[in-house]
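User: What would this chain look like folded?
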Amino acid sequence: MNRSTEQRNEEVTKTLGMLDQMPRVEVNHLFRVRLMQRIDTMEIGKTSGVAVFGGAFNPRLAFMALLLVLNIASALMLYMHQAPQTTGSAGVIADSFSEAYGGPALSYYDDQSAIDR
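Assistant: Here's the prediction, encoded as C-alpha cells.
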C-alpha cells in the first residue's frame, strides 16, 4: 500500500475512535414536539402574511402586478391614441431624405459622375 493511504487510514481510525469516546448527548423528550409547534406557527404566519399587505415581500406577486400594469398601459395607449398614425408614401420619404442629405455640407461626397451615367 501507498504511504499516504496508510496515513489516511490511520487518521480515519483515530478520528472514529475519538468519536466513539465522546459522551452521547441526551435530547429533551419534548424537543420534537416543540420543534413541530414552532414549524406550524411559522407556516401559519407565512400564509397569513401573503393575504395582508403587512406581510413579507412576495416577488412573484410583484412581478405579476408589474406585468398587469404594463398590459393595461399598452392597451390604453393602443385604444386611446387621439390621432391615427398614417404611413407616409414613398415620395414623402424620398423628399425627407433629399432635404436631410442634400445640403451643401454633404455635396462634397456627392458623386455627380455616377448620376450622369
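Residues 3-102 form one domain. If you want, I can go into more detail on any region.
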